[in-house]
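Table S2 (text version). Query chain:
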Amino acid sequence: MRQTLSVLVENQFGVLARVAGLFSGRGFNIESLSVAETLDPSLSIMTIVTEGDQQILEQITKQLNKLIPVIKVVEMADKPHVERELVLVKVAAKPENRAEILRMVEIFRGKVIDVSPKNYTIEITGDANKIRAFLELLKPMGIKEIARTGRVAMTRG
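Corresponding structure-token output:
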């Protein structure tokens, strides 16, 4: 089962390497990782998506809490939360497909952020299911390139 962790850490060099090393040293895979400074510039928030059962997640959480620069670990599955991801997609914009691509972008509440004679670059934000559905619809058009941010999450309220 896929799990999302929100990890509050001290904003110091090497923290990301220590957290990633903890995962790799124990044979856990990080499927998605997003890190950014918080309102307090001395702290950063890491959103980590990993795969594993409840026992593996408990082990990961305990090991993370042992790291000195880690302040707090929150398992998002335990709390009401929102998740989002950003994806940039470069798609072939053949004259016969342009109107259909633009309709899809509008339906999925995306934006065309760059236009060239042969391509559109599209920005879409949403949960993983929305992103997956949009990419599946675009595949027949000819996806040329994809850049994804990975998941970010925040508790509600």
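Notes on Table S2: The beta strands are 2-10, 30-37, 43-51, 70-75, 81-92, 111-115, 119-126, 143-148, 152-155. The CA atoms of residues 2 and 51 lie 4 Å apart.
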